[in-house]
User: What shape does this take?
Amino acid sequence: MEGQFTWGSNYTFLVRVGAELEGVYKPVKGEQPLWDFPSETLAGREVAAFLLSEALGWQLVPPTVFRSEGPFGPGSLQLRVPHDPEQHYFTFEDAVCQRLRPAAVFDLLANNADRKGGHILLGDDGHLWLIDHGICFHEEPKLRTVIWDFAGEHIPPELVEDVRSLQAKLRTGGELSEQLAAYLSPPELDALRQRVAALLAQPVFPHPPEDERYMPWPPV
Assistant: This one.
């Protein structure tokens, strides 16, 4: 173990993965209880977010696995991608922000309740990455995000087709459904299917709601 990240509410550690790679380890026992999410489920939701990203073919979430053994017990382990920590959503040039349409669709599907600006990384190679998905996939609508740039726009057809392919993969009994079932409850998995169907029925980026909170706090 190389050190601890201290800015979050849950215990998060930097670890060495092999000789050259670094990882971000989030042990289940370091999760702070939340009133609206079941206890000891956040690490699994990190893995579910990676599985969703891969099923869409978008490679938005760094490789993430669940490890039953770790310095502090079971938890998620995510590849740490090289990036400038001073760069985030609120510092990106407009050309970079314009590339965030897949990220906005991803958060809609994942029902991300905490898409802060600092959870969007610009890799050293220019690739955009999304991290911190511990409070996603709730069965009730909880979208809170800083990415409202595209409100009212039609979702690009190529992204819609990827979501259509995802819908087929999410059929009950399929491999993806079985993988996600290890980390999400049956109602949460059904809610994901319903969000996919709703997006396909109306492929438009939503506007922020007027009657409820729609931004995370703090925003970075």
Observations:
- The mean pLDDT is 94.
- Residues 3-201 form a domain with the Transferase(Phosphotransferase); domain 1 fold (CATH 1.10.510).
- The radius of gyration is 17 Å.
- The beta strands are 3-5, 12-17, 21-27, 64-67, 75-79, 120-122, 128-130.
